[in-house]
Structure formats: structure tokens, C-alpha cells
Specification:
381 residues; Rossmann fold; 16 helices; 11 strands; binds NADPH dihydro-nicotinamide-adenine-dinucleotide phosphate; binds magnesium ion
Length: 381
């Protein structure tokens, strides 16, 4: 099999570093053709030295030096140029934030595989991205673990036989906390994720359950089922990543270790399966799997995400943008943990929606929501 050239955007992040491990362990199949980083130029430079990609893209203004023979590109234009490069086979979008939409669209337009980790791309721009996807030869293979699980399960069933798709949620570090305890939750508490090791923004989102809300929206665009058919179940062990309920009542489930190397590797190798990137789980060791209903009274962010999806248009972009601003305000100690969904709800309540059919409209909605969120946060502090 020909070695596949991978462009890895967000190489310096949590997903990015895991992806590098996967590519290194399968170097007869994949090569790091290009990497991008934002502020961590030290690590990016080390990656460039170790892997000698053809391209390095830096999206911040930070200075960097790369070895001779490597082309250095800058900014979003750099990401787009690499995503469209004829020698690139797979674009792994693992940046955080809405910037992920640009290389995703460029790669799809050029008929490439997008291994998509970045959530914001589908949450904020779902309609635009799926329109581009449908009109060309590109494909999106999800990296988010729940979506990878559902993607794998759906490949084995007929569409009309599906009753529901079910995303599992660990419930985060505050699964058993009371409202009073949540009001006093510290950043340190919120960053202690019980089962997954991830970047800090998504770890806070897991604690509020907004992460699951964003994933419901992501699933809606990826799999094309109506919102009523997308359910969330809390499963604290995070061993089952996704389930598909069939019309005869059978439930298919996907179980694996809680390690992002698995879905990353599958998004690169699909439809093939490679050697396990981590030690496979032993169910006897695990012993017990439990399930609970998510509590939207304590975790209103999940309901806000369902509401945003029901109203659709520019609402999911507004949900994502206001949440991002609120999460960073919490991380900086400016607001309380329980203020995060309040900011989102406040901004959504003021929004005058637009259709959400163009990138420009959605970027406007995103910018507006960030401004409104900052205003609300200022009032709270
Ligand atoms: P991290 O914060 O660990 O990494 C983010 C990456 O994006 C870094 O490489 C960072 O560069 C880069 N980056 C940050 N800001 C920008 C910007 N404005 N423009 C371009 N690049 C930027 O995040 P994660 O790896 O945790 O998550 C990445 C994405 O994957 C998110 O969308 C997240 O929701 C999604 N995801 C993550 C999972 C996980 O397990 N971590 C699971 C499922 C989805 P630098 O560090 O150099 O500044
Ligand atoms: Mg996930």
C-alpha cells in the first residue's frame, strides 16, 4: 500500500500529539507531510526536526526557525494551501476553535479525506460544511470518540433499521455534585477529568456537559438523523463510546479503551484496521458498566445545546462562541463554574437568528456572540 501523506493541523495539541504517536507507530503506512501549531513554536520546531515534514504552518505571529528544506507558511492561508496540496491524502484537523473550518472546506473541495477532531467546524458551520461535502469527492471520518464509535456501528446496519443513536458521556468530575457544590467548583476541580486526558477547554466542557451538547450537534450533521433520534446517556466508565438502537429493540455498542489514539488511528486507516495503538481493554478487569440519565437541572448546558440545534440556523454558532468565551473567563477565574451556562443562555436569548447558510453570516453571528458574552461577563464580575 502506498504511504499516505498526512497534514496534521494542531500538531502541538492533545489530539495532535496523540496523532503523532499513531503516525510514528505506523510509519510504513503514514507520513507527516505537514504540521501546524499556533503558540507553542518550541514544540512545533521539535516536531519539524524529528519528522522533517515538507511543510510547517504557524498560525500565530510567533517566530520559528525550521530545518532547511522545509517550507514555512503562515496563518489560515497556510492551512488552506496545505489542505489543497495535491500530495496530501488525509487532512487531520485537530486545531481548537472555529479556524478548523477553513482547512476542512479546502480539503473537501479538493476531494481529500478529512479526519475531523475539531468540533467547532460542524457545530458552528454544519450546513455549509455538509453542503461542500455532498457536492464533491471528499469525505469526513470523525475522530471524536463517540462519533467514531457511531460511525463504525452504522457501517454495519441499514439506515432504515436505525431507531436511535446514543452518545455516552462520562458525566465529568461533577457527576455526583449538588448545585451548591457546583457553585463553588474551582478550576482545579473542573480540570480533573475522571476518564479522559484532553486539552483544558474541552475538559471544562466535559464538566458542564456542554461537550456532550456540542457532540449532539456534531452527530446531527455527521450522520443526518433528526434531533429526536440522538440521545445522551451518562456512562461513568467511558468504556462504551456510542450505541445504535435498532428498530427491533437490539442495541449495538462500541467498546474500547479511553484513549484518543484509537479513533485517530481508525480515521486514518479506515476501512482497514491496524494493530492496537494501546492495550486492549479486559472486560473482566473492568467488571461493571453503569448508566444514568443526564441531569439537565444541574447541567443545563446540555439542554441549551439541544435548544440551539432545534432552532438551528446561527444558534449553534452562537452557542459555541458564547460558551468558548465563558469557559476561558472561568479558566481565568473571572466567573463561577455555574455562570458558564448562564452566559450562553443570556447570549442565546438576545440573538436575532440568520439562516446560517453562508460562512460570512455564521462568522458574523460568532463575532456578535463573543461580544455579547464579554458584556455579560463584565456585568457578572
Ligand atoms: P488543545 O488545546 O490541546 O490543542 C489545540 C491545538 O490547536 C494546538 O495545536 C494549538 O496550538 C492549536 N490552536 C489553538 N488556537 C489556534 C488558532 N487560533 N489557530 C490555529 N491553531 C490553533 O486541544 P485538543 O487537542 O484537546 O482539541 C482539539 C480539537 O479537537 C478541539 O476542537 C476539541 O473539541 C476536539 N476534540 C478533542 C478531544 C481530546 O481528546 N482532546 C476529543 C474530541 C475532540 P498551540 O498549542 O501551538 O498554541
Ligand atoms: Mg468526545
Amino acid at each position: 500500500m502506498k504511504v499516505k501523506n498526512v497534514a496534521l493541523f494542531g500538531a502541538t495539541g492533545s489530539i495532535g500529539r496523540n496523532a503523532i504517536e499513531v503516525i510514528k507507530n505506523n510509519n510504513e503506512l503514514f507520513r507527516l507531510f505537514a504540521v501546524s501549531g499556533h503558540t507553542n513554536v518550541e514544540l512545533l520546531s521539535r516536531i519539524a526536526n524529528d519528522f522533517k515534514p515538507d511543510y510547517v504552518v504557524v498560525t500565530s505571529d510567533n517566530q520559528i526557525s525550521v530545518p532547511d528544506g522545509i517550507t514555512l507558511l503562515r496563518g489560515i492561508d497556510g492551512l488552506k494551501e496545505v489542505a489543497a496540496h495535491p500530495d496530501v491524502d488525509i487532512v487531520l484537523v485537530a486545531t481548537s476553535g472555529i479556524v478548523g473550518v477553513f482547512p476542512t472546506i479546502e480539503a473537501l473541495k479538493n476531494g481529500k479525506r478529512v479526519a475531523l477532531a475539531n468540533k467547532e467546524t460542524l457545530v458552528s458551520f454544519g450546513k455549509v460544511v455538509t453542503d461542500v461535502l455532498k457536492s464533491g469527492d471528499g469525505e469526513i471520518i470523525p475522530v471524536d470518540s463517540e462519533h467514531s464509535a457511531i460511525f463504525q456501528l452504522l457501517n454495519g446496519v441499514k439506515r432504515e433499521e436505525v431507531d436511535k443513536i446514543v452518545l455516552t458521556a462520562s458525566g465529568g468530575p461533577f457527576r455526583t455534585w449538588s448545585v451548591e457544590q457546583l457553585e463553588n467548583a474551582t478550576v482545579q476541580d473542573a480540570l480533573k477529568h475522571p476518564t479522559w486526558s484532553m486539552g483544558s477547554k474541552i475538559t471544562i466542557d466535559s464538566a458542564t456537559l456542554m461537550n456532550k451538547g456540542l457532540e449532539v450537534i456534531e452527530a446531527y450533521w455527521l450522520f443526518g438523523y433528526p434531533i429526536e433520534k440522538i440521545d445522551v446517556v451518562v456512562h461513568p466508565q467511558s468504556i462504551i463510546h456510542g450505541m445504535v438502537t435498532l428498530k427491533d429493540g437490539a442495541i449495538l455498542a462500541h467498546l474500547s479503551a479511553t484513549d484518543m489514539k484509537l479513533p485517530i488511528q481508525y480515521a486514518l486507516s479506515f476501512p482497514n484496521r491496524l494493530k492496537p495503538p494501546v492495550k486492549p481493554i479486559d472486560l473482566v478487569d473492568i467488571g461493571k458498566l453503569t448508566f444514568e440519565k443526564p441531569d439537565i437541572n444541574r447541567f443545563p448546558a446540555l439542554k441549551l445545546a439541544y435548544d440551539a440545534l432545534k432552532m438551528n440556523g446561527s444558534y449553534p454558532a452562537v452557542l459555541n462562541a458564547s460558551n468558548e468565551v465563558a469557559v476561558y473567563a472561568f479558566l481565568e477565574g473571572k466567573i463561577r463554574f455555574t455562570d458558564i451556562p448562564k452566559v450562553v443562555e443570556g447570549v442565546m436569548g438576545k440573538h436575532h437568528p440568520v439562516s446560517g447558510d453562508t460562512l460570512e453570516e455564521l462568522f458574523d453571528a460568532d463575532r456578535w456572540a463573543r461580544g455579547e458574552a464579554l458584556k455579560l461577563i463584565k456585568k457578572m464580575t
